[in-house]
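Appendix C reproduces, verbatim, an entry submitted by the partner laboratory led by Prof. M.T., so that reviewers can inspect both the input and the predicted structure.
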Amino acid sequence: MPKKPKRPCRYPSCPKLADGVYCEEHAKLMNAHYNKFSRGYDSNERYSKAWRKIRDRYITAHPLCERCLTEGRYIPADLVHHKKPLSEGGSNDDNNLMSLCYSCHEKIHRERGDR
């Protein structure tokens, strides 16, 4: 199967070609920029290697979206959500976690007024 042709990097005045939107060098730079300014925090600082282990263990044990499951739908979970956010004193205990699909996660944050 032929690959897509490379396109110019979208970073201003970069002459390199890229498989995606940015070349490798500028993709890292733009990801760091996104983490700092768009998210309001650096995800690598907030969510450490320990959190990734907890998340992977939890989503393996609960592979379906828990909110959809209560409505009788069987949708694979995409991420693990804290019922009580860490910023409000929540913890990484199993009783404070729930596996969700992206759609349900967005709904929860819209209901809370986060987004």
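Residues 24-38 form the longest helix (15 residues). Additional entries are available on request from the coordinating office.
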